[in-house]
Each structure stands twice: as C-alpha cells, then as structure tokens.
Amino acid sequence: MELETLKDLYIHELKDLYSAEKQIIKALPKMVKAAKNAQLAAGFKMHLEQTKVQAERLEKLLASHGESTRGPKCQGMEGVLKEGDEMLEEDATDEVRDAGLIAAAQRVEHYEMAGYGCARTYAVELGDKAGAQVLATTLREESETDKKLTKIAKSVVNLKAKKAVAPKEDSPVEEVGKAIKKVVKKITG
Ligand SMILES: [Fe+2]
To answer: What pTM, to 2 d.p., does this model score?
Structure first.
C-alpha cells in the first residue's frame, strides 16, 4: 500500500502540486502571448516567474523529506489547462478572449489554492513547521494572483469585452437600427 499514513498523503500532494506547477510553467508563455491587454500580459508574465519559484520551493520541500519530485501527472491541472488552451483557439474578439483567459487563469489559481490549502494543513498536523510556512507563502501568492485577476477583469477587461463589436456580422439590434435609419432617410429625403 502506497498511502498508509497522512505523511504518505502529504508527500503525494506535494508531488501532485509540483506536477501542476510544471504544467503551468509550460502553459503561461502562450497566455502571455495571447493576452492583448498589456496589464493582463504583464500579470501573466509576473506569475510565470512566481510559478518557477513555487516549483523550486516544492522541490526543496520534497528533498527535505528525502523525496524526489517524480510522481504521476496532475490530471486535474491538465484538464484545467486544456480548457485554457481551447480558449486560445476560439474564434473570438481580442477583448472577449482576454476576458476568457482571465476566467481560465482563475480556475488554475483556485485549483492550486485547494491543493496548497490541504498540503499546508497536513504540514501543520504533521509538525512540519518549515513546510507549513513555505506552503502558506505560496498559497498567499496564488490568492493574491486570483484577486489581481479579478481586479483587471472588473476594472478593464470585462468592460472592454462588453463593448466589443464583432468585426463582420451585425447583431439583430444593429440590423434593425440600420433599417430604421434607411427608412428615415427615405422619408426625410
Ligand atoms: Fe502556482
């Protein structure tokens, strides 16, 4: 049996988080490139650097328990990132895609927060004070990133997405508006 004790589960969670962070490090450059809003692109870039440090922390923490980072791929994060990847492929206006990228990134942050929250609790319960501290630091960073994304969405990106107009097709409302203008022009000469 591989998972006999809470300590086994703790190590299992740390390896899972490490796999998640490594996948995020691979995915973030694509999101930096895709983001049209400068503030959002800069936010993703900053989080990429932060994520590299978070992965290193896990590496050191696992090493302090005599464990390597090797473990199964975090399938949850794989799925969440795949959805984000699909957003990159969507036929969308720049403004709406940016809003979609934020939604995808916030799913990533919340998934991580759930994992780090559990791991930190295990660390506390197992008396791994240093581990608990390191995990709390990362947890705080993920939460701050999530809040920053909400701020960018609410203050700029969602507002722009709301005003975004599809380049070719007119909405039914716009078509009616154009038809009315035509009639009015005919009547008034
Ligand atoms: Fe992270």
So the answer is: 0.85
Q: Taking 80 as the threshold, does the pLDDT of residue 170 lie above it?
A: no
* Selection from 13-17, 161-165, 174-178 with the highest mean pLDDT: 13-17
3-state helix, strand, coil in the chain (%, to 5): 80, 0, 20
* CATH class of segment(s) 6-163: mainly alpha
Q: From the CA of 21, how far away is ligand 1's center (Å)?
A: 5
Distance 178 CA to ligand 1 centre (A): 49
Q: Helix count (H) and strand count (E) of the chain?
A: 7, 0
| Alpha-carbon gap, residue 137 to 141, rounded angstroms | 6
Write out pLDDT tens, residues 42-59: 999 999 999 999 999 999
Q: Which residue type occupies 78?
A: E
